[in-house]
Design a protein that fits this description.
The protein has 218 residues and is α/β, with parallel strands linked by helices. The chain has helices at residues 11-33, 57-69, 87-94, 112-122, 144-155, 175-178, 191-202, 206-216; strands spanning 46-50, 100-103, 132-136, 161-167, 182-185. It has 2 domains: 3-187, Rossmann fold (3-Layer(aba) Sandwich); 188-218, no CATH class.
Amino acid sequence: MTVWDDLVGQEKVSEQLEAAARDADALVTAVAADTPLPEASKMTHAWLFTGPPGSGRSTTARAFAAALQCVSPDRALGGAPGCGFCDGCHTSLVGTHADVQIIRTDLLSIGVKETRDLVRRAQLSPAVGRWQVIVMEDADRLTEGAGNVLLKAVEEPAPRTVWLLCAPSLEDVLPTIRSRCRHLTLRTPSVAAVADVLVRRDGIEPDIAAAVARATQG
C-alpha cells in the first residue's frame, strides 16, 4: 500500500498530488546535485484542501506530507514518491517526523502567538527530511491577526518549506491566504469507495462493509 491508498474516493486529487510530489522530488534532487532546475513544476509552496466532513482533508494533507518526505530508493528508478514503507513516509504518517509539523486545535481559534511560532519554524531548513512541511488542520480557525502573520510566510516562503492548510470551504479561509494557495476540493466518498477500502485495508466482510458504508454516509 502507498500513502495514497487512504485517500478514499479522491482519485483526481491523488493524481494531482502524486504529480506534484514527483516534481518536488526532482527539484530537491536537482538542488542536491547542483544541476539545472526543472523548467516546469506542478509543485508549489502553499496548498489549501477543502471539503465536507468525512472527505479526508487531514488524511490528504498527511499523505502529501509523507510523499514529500519519501526516501524510497525506487524513486531513482522512476517510482512515484509515497511508498508508504520508508522511514520518511512512516514517520510522517504517524506524526514523528522531525520536519513535519501537524497543527490542530480544540479551541475556537488559532491566535497570533501560535502562528508566529509556526512562521518562525517555517524559516528553518529541513533538519533531516527533504522538505519542511507544516500541516494546519484547522486553517478556518485563524483569527484575522493570525492570518496576517501567516500571510507574509506564505507570500515569501523559505526555499524548502511547504504549507498544507485544511478547511471546510474556501469561504472559511481569509481571502488573502486562499488567494496565495493552490486549492484542491475533496468530495464525500461514495458508499462503494468506503466499502472497498474497508474490505481491502481492514479485512471486513463485503456485506458488513457495504452496510457500514451506507450507514455512515461517507
